Amino acid sequence: MPRDGQPLIGQSRAVKFWVSYAGERNLKASDQEVEDLLSIYGRRGRWKSEDFPLDVSVGYQVRTTHRALQRYLHTVIEPHGVTLGMWYFLRVLWHEDGVTQSDLSRRIGTMEPTTLNAISSMEREGLVRRVRDKVDRRRQLIYLTPKGRALKAKLVPLAVEVVQAATSGVPPWEIAMLLHVLKKIQGNVDAKLEQLQASDVDEH
Known about the structure:
CATH superfamily of the largest domain: Winged helix-like DNA-binding domain superfamily/Winged helix DNA-binding domain
Strand content: 5-15%
Largest sheet: 3 strands, antiparallel
Structural class: mainly alpha
Order of helices and strands: HHHHEHHEEHH
CATH class of the largest domain: Mainly Alpha
Number of helices: 8
Distance between the termini: 38 Å
Helix content: 55-70%
Number of strands: 3
Shape: globular
CATH architecture of the largest domain: Orthogonal Bundle
């Protein structure tokens, strides 16, 4: 049964339209491209080929895009003495100052040793300081210094320029759809990981 109960021909035309639209306006999706996309994403469990083309792999395309954006971002923030490793932690602290190391790790998705190294680097550069929690003396809170806080006005506009350049020529509604789809994918992956972790606990 085709996905969502839609006629297969309807899916084929829709996929062909979007593949064509996503490329050059005179590009036409081949029947093989449409078949690949439908086999992977439109007919669950029917992908029989051992080949998994990179141009239709969501994971590969997301990774490639992320790496390109990181390289671009690095070139504009590095002259200000900020590395990519520092950047993500600064983003969290600009939004909410005075959080713990474990909070930073959780929000950014890094391991504790990575977070510790980044905090130490930022501390040496005079961007953050550690303060004992007055309620729980075992905890250390990470606060921005005036220097670290001042970087926001310089770096955030540069990050906006990077995104604007990367999305040049892309209509706002397509960007909104992209963000919507990425959030759906993140939710799906998070839910699957939770299932796998729960399964591991049950087995032990």
